[in-house]
From TrEMBL:
Family: Belongs to the UPF0270 family.
Record InterPro entries: UPF0270, YehU-like_sf
Source lineage: Bacteria, Pseudomonadati, Pseudomonadota, Gammaproteobacteria, Oceanospirillales
SUPFAM superfamilies, alphabetized: YehU-like
Protein name: YheU family protein
Amino acid sequence: MSRFIEVPARMLPPETLNALLETFVTRQGYDTTDTGEGMAGWVVELKRQLERSELIIAHDLELEMTEVMTLAQWRAFGRDLADDEEEGEHY
């Protein structure tokens, strides 16, 4: 069984999805004045990116954490995790 699952955005309550997207905006250091609509403008843009499959929502079953990630972040995270697991097998 995989430790991570992808969560479809449509399965989340709107307030939960908005909170995840706002956290992503903050973590990525986006300038909330760029959109002219502040944080709400970024949330709308990120929802479009989710619809285009440019972002994913991933849930870590072990840590019980949910994160929004770009595909590049997801791929890098997957490689880092695989590297950690391989290193752990050598102990």
